[in-house]
Structure formats: structure tokens, C-alpha cells
From TrEMBL:
Pfam short name (any one): Rhodanese
Protein name: Rhodanese-related sulfurtransferase
Species for this entry: Klebsiella pneumoniae
Superkingdom assignment: Bacteria
Residue span(s) of domain Rhodanese: 18-108, 141-197
Amino acid sequence: MSTYAYRQAAGIRQALLDRRELALIDVREEADFATAHPLFAVNLPLSKLELEVRRRIPRFTTPLTVYDNGEGLAEIAVERLRSWGYQDVALLAEGLAGWRRSGGELFQDVNSASKAFGELVESVRHTPSLSAQEVQALIDSRQEVVIVDARRFDEYQTMSIPGSISVPGGELALRVESLTPSPQTPVIVNCAGRTRSIIGTPVADQRRRAKPGPCPAQWHYRLDAGRPDAGAPATAAIRSLLPRLRRPGR
């Protein structure tokens, strides 16, 4: 019978505060992970563990702590990780329930840390945004506008705004200038939620500012599907947007 080492939630939290190397691994499927997980846990479902773990955790000496929510997946994952050469593998004591009982905070959704960073950027940079209805109004009115999709190409292929261009986030700084007909062309950055567009909008703005021709920040927008005024009629959106999008003398 296999024996397992255990780590307490308090020890994991302290290791994170001390910036020690570790990996806290949730081996449930992504849908379950998204319902509740510690902030810095990484989701490596047992069904994909063999395919992803070496790429995500390349060092065999990294301390690994594995957990589930009582499904029995964590023990299987520990056995497999040991067989693949990982040298320091333990279970989180009492799993997700133990983390909760110890007072540890749980977060919903995926990529929680990066999304929190995006919200911080928006609060500091006051990133301008347009609702989905406002963007549709611009498309319908045939205004000169460039819509760039900052998601991965596979996400873009799944669904996208008609007429948008796939420019994964890391490529924005390299490609945004070549995609715009002139420095005066408004650029709208969209993604599936909001984080990548929040980050992508100032990236596009700063890149275009570095070249000849004024390009103030308000000429770069992110698409925000969660705006309270998302139901505004398209005709009203056109009337309110055009003064903001046109430069004097155009």
C-alpha cells in the first residue's frame, strides 16, 4: 500500500509569502477548478497531467502539493508524478476542504491572479471602453476602425467579431501599426472577457504614440461586454461615438 506525505495549508501559504519555489496543483477538471480554488493553484487535470506537467513544471526537484475535493484524483496523481521522476510530491492535508477550514480564501473562475492584475491596470490607467452595442454601431455605420482580437488564435477561430483581426496579446506591440491605415484610425481591442483587452489597449496605445502623428490614449478602446449601458440603441451609440472618434479637422 502506498504511503503519502502531507502538507498543511498554513505551510503552503507561508511558503507563498516567503516566495519559495512550489507548485500547488489542482487535478480536477477545469469546470470544477473554476468553482473554487486557492489563488495561486495551477489547474492540471488528471486527464491531461501526463501531457502538460513537464512543460508547466520542468524541474523534478520542485516541491509539488496536489489536491482535489475528495474525488480520489489526488492520490492517483501523486503516484503518477512520482513515477515520472518528481522527487518531492505531497498531498494537501484534507484537500480543498482543508484549505477552506484553515481560513484560506477560495476564488472562482480561472486565471484569477492575472485577472486581478488586469483590474488593477484598469483602475490605474482608466482604460477607455466601448460596449458591444457601440462597437456594432460603428461597424454598421462603416466608420474607419480596426478591431483586434487579443486572444490566442485557437480561441479566435472558435468565435470572433466579424471583421476583427487575430493579434494575440504578445504580438500587439509588433503588429498594431501595420494594421492601421493611418495614425488617426481608432483601434478597438477585444478578448473573451476583459483582462487581455485591458492589458492590450495601453500596449497598442503606447506603441502608436512612439511614431509620428499624435495618437492620444482616448483613441484606443477595449470592448467591454459588461458595461451597464450595453443595451443602448445603435443609432444613439453612433451619434455619441462619432464626436469622440473624430479628430478636429477630419
